[in-house]
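Board notes (copied after class):
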Amino acid sequence: MSTEAAKEAGKRAAARAALEHVTDGMKLGLGTGSTAQIFVELLGERIAAEGLQVSCVPTSQATGRDAQRAGAPLTTLNAAGWLDLTIDGADEVDPALALIKGGGGALLIEKIVACASDRMIVIADDSKRVETLGRFPLPVEITPYGWQTTCAVVESALAEHDVDACKAELRMRRDEPFLTDEGNMILDLPLKRIGDAAALERGLTMIPGVVETGLFVGVADLAIFGTAEGGAETLSAA
């Protein structure tokens, strides 16, 4: 089995295990990314097979389209008010369930939705499990206005934190800056190692022009890691 095939099998195993936490009548937050996309597909199959009654808040336009194709009923966070459960992927997960998210560019809405839920379950293939965050570049969502100044301030602030690199790179899509669904830009920070994720999150969000970071600290309640063999391991927050 190739590496990519093993990752795909792990994603599907994690998504299938997470589906067992969904019960009739739930209000669900649906994450963004390849693993969340598989969960939405499986959720749609269960809705069709069992008549499962749920209402779903998508965290991106792409997830909304996936949910519509899967037959999952959609609502808004304003209409739902509060959610029972959010299920989302992650780019990295450490032993304390601190996360790096935002590889797909939906970190702001993902964090809003996750924090408006009773519980958040993270689903990922086993390769996303790390001892220390930072190998995956940390996404930071910023306003387009004055973005170069914001970028310079972010790089300067990194020198005050326990990280191994202090560089910020503007995310591009072909020859244009990548824009989120909310019209913001993203800086990717290849930090290599993050010694104190909570301190870094606090420090970056204090910078004017920074909208949100891809650090999710103290948000996830459970992580489910799928394996290439189709099994799944569950890790709870301490």
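Comment from the instructor: The CA atoms of residues 57 and 76 lie 5 Å apart. The chain has a mean pLDDT of 97.
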